[in-house]
Amino acid sequence: MLGSTSGDTSVAAPGPVAYARCPSGVAIGSFHQDDRVFLTGRAKNSQWVEVRDPANLDARVWVVADVVVPDNEVAQLPVHACTPEAAASASSTTTTTTTVAPDAAPTDETTTTTTAPGASPVAPPAAGGGPSGGGGAPPPGDTTPPAINQAGLGPNPIWEQAGANPNACFLNPVVYHVVANVSAIVTDPSGVASVTVSWDGAQAGSRAMSGSGNSFTGTIGPFAQQLPYNGQSHLTVTITARDNAGNTSTAQLALTVNACVLG
C-alpha cells in the first residue's frame, strides 16, 4: 500500500505501481503493495502525489494518488509543481557511434537518445485514474466502468469495541464480533486500478481493499463505544472500483452496529 500525507505511507495496489519524475511522465521505477513511502506534496488537481525518491532521498518522484492510502487527507499536502527542467535533469543520455567499413565512404554516424533509465510511458490519469499491474494502458475511448459482482459483508451485525479489548465485545459465553469482512469480485477489460470500501455514520471512514486476481477483500471496524445502551447504528457501506481509464462504479451494502454488551 502507499499511505500518508507528510510521513510514512504505504502502497495499496495489488500490482507494481509506476512512478515518474513528473506527473504523466515516463516511468523510472515502480512501487509494490505494502511499500512504505513519504509523501511531500500533491499536484494542483490532487490526481498525483509527490513522494521521496527511494533511490535518492534528496530527490522527488510522482505517483498516481488513487493507489495511496494516506494517514491524513491528501488535500492537506502542499501543492507542488514539477517543471520539465527538473525531469530533464534526472534523465540520462546514451551516445552510440558507428564507423562504416573502410571500402565505404569515410563517414561517422552518431545517434544520441535521451531517456529516463528503464523508461516506459506512464499513462496520464483520466478523471483520476492511475496505473496498475492488472491491465496496462486502457483501450482508446474506454467508457465502460468496472463490473462489481458478489459483493457481500459479514458478520452482520457487529458490536462496538469494549474499551481497550482488541478482540470483541462480550457477555459470556457469547462472543460479539467487532469487525465485518467485506468482499467483492471486480473485473474490467482495461485493468482495475483501485478498489476501496467506505462507510457513513458518526465514525465514517474508508480503506483500500486488497486484491488477489479479481477478488478484493477489506474490513470495517472496530468502532469505539459511542452508542447509548441498547443503541444501534445503521451504516451504508460503499464499494468503489476504478479502472485504468478513470471509469468508476459502486456497490452498496447495509451494516448494523450495536452498542456493546458488557457482562
Summarize the structure in short.
The chain is mainly β. It is built from one helix and 21 strands.
Helices and strands in order:
Layout: E1 8-11, E2 17-20, E3 26-31, E4 36-42, E5 48-53, E6 56-64, E7 68-69, H1 84-89, E8 92-99, E9 108-115, E10 120-121, E11 147-154, E12 158-159, E13 168-171, E14 174-177, E15 180-187, E16 192-199, E17 205-208, E18 210-212, E19 215-220, E20 232-243, E21 248-258
Parallel strand pairs: 12-21
Antiparallel strand pairs: 1-4, 1-7, 2-3, 3-10, 4-5, 5-6, 8-9, 11-15, 13-14, 15-19, 16-17, 16-20, 18-19, 20-21
Structural class: mainly beta
CATH architecture of the largest domain: Roll
The helix count comes to 1
Proportion in β-strands = over 45%
Strand line-up in the sheet with most strands: 6-5-4-1-7
Biggest sheet, in brief?
A: 5 strands, antiparallel
Describe this structure in words.
A hairpin with a 2-residue loop joins strand 18 and strand 19. The model is unreliable at 1-7, 90-102 and 104-134 (pLDDT under 50). This protein has one helix and 21 strands. With 263 residues, it is mainly β. The longest helix has 6 residues, at 84-89. It is globular. It folds into two domains: 1-133, SH3 type barrels (Roll); 147-258, Immunoglobulin-like. The strands form six sheets. The protein has a five-stranded antiparallel β-sheet, with no helix packed on it. Strands 12-21-20-16-17 form a five-stranded mixed β-sheet, with no helix packed on it. A four-stranded antiparallel β-sheet has the order 11-15-19-18, with no helix packed on it.
